[in-house]
Amino acid sequence: MNWSKVLILLLVLPALAQAQAERWLDPRCTVLDISKNGPFIQDADGALLAVTGKMLHKSTDAGKTWSPASPEIASGLNMEHVGHVGQMLRTREKAIVITYLNFDDYTFKWNDEKNEPDPSCKLELWSVRSIDGGKTWIDNQQLLAGYNADYMGFIQTSKGRLVATVEHLDPDLKRWVVCSFISDDDGKTWRRGNWIDLGGRGHHDGAVEPMAVELKDGRLMMLIRTNLDQFWRAYSDDGLYWRTIEPSGIDASSAPGWLTRLQSGRLVLVWNRLNSERKGEWEKSSGPSTAETPASWHREELSIAFSDDDGKTWSKPTLIAYQDGGQFSYPYILERAPGELWVFTRYTYGPEGKQAPFLALSVDETDLPAK
């Protein structure tokens, strides 16, 4: 046996394994020096606002440091929790409105034997607002009781209506359904729309984690995570009632994306595709209580695509980041300046499920997709 070659292998193989485990970023992307991963409100002067703990904090140095900008907002607020557990925006009337999952008395239990949620499950959806720039907070109220989870849609339409698209665990159906809430008075009062139900059974089955965007004709489009190999989409004339529900044709794993309209007028979507661009078809799986239909849980790669026709067609997806054996998922996008996209992930794991620093990168819209 050549012991010198063995020694070289012992020294080199760990280094190769480490290199393979490192994250890869598209060279057109720039890593951001920022300590938070959203959601953000951006002031006209370029300052960023984000919730840390139960307070609104402000950064005037592009997110490197943060200082308190408000008193405690609400006791159950915990937007630093992994995932998209709250969204916020500044309305045209300058109100700051936050919709959030209330972690007071948070409980989740699933009965695997019966394949149903325990009656004690609780994670309520609430909203709160400020009309003085965050100095005080008012109208803290419950929107939806029971158990609710991550959601990605919270926008103000061209007519001024606030629309939040959310998910809800239905204890009778034993799966997730989605709906929207609307407000025409800057978050003071709210109304709930109809349920969207795509069937299934299990603690990760049904219609999940919706996104929303306003189209150029005034309608709204919702994209919904499913276990059906693609996002489903729904359309609404008013943001309240959704009566056209169909497959979107956008292949996707069982993971959410982030959808928004850019100042250029284009739509941008960042998400985890159904299969790996580098490794091919992704094996599908499903536990006995997870979902009825086996699904791809591919989250190693993060892709981006653009649409010039309100989602009818999309550019060829561009792979912007991957982490072998890990996850770049639950993305978030901030258009920091016209065409300057800041992309983050809120579920970020390395190999063997070890939590890793979140992805934070900047990329120019005009540099993508790949030429």
Description of the structure:
The chain is mainly beta and 371 residues long. The protein has one domain (23-367): Neuraminidase. Helices cover 5% and strands 45% of the residues. It has one helix and 29 strands. It has one helix spanning 3-21; strands at 24-25, 30-31, 41-42, 48-52, 55-59, 67-68, 86-90, 96-107, 110-111, 116-117, 122-130, 138-144, 147-156, 162-170, 175-183, 191-192, 208-214, 220-225, 230-236, 242-251, 258-261, 267-271, 284-285, 295-296, 301-307, 318-322, 327-337, 340-349, 360-364. The chain has a five-stranded antiparallel β-sheet, with no helix packed on it. A four-stranded antiparallel β-sheet has the order 2-29-28-27, with no helix packed on it. Strands 3-4-5-6 form a four-stranded antiparallel β-sheet, with no helix packed on it. A hairpin with a 5-residue loop joins strand 7 (86-90) and strand 8 (96-107). The radius of gyration is 21 Å and the shape is globular.
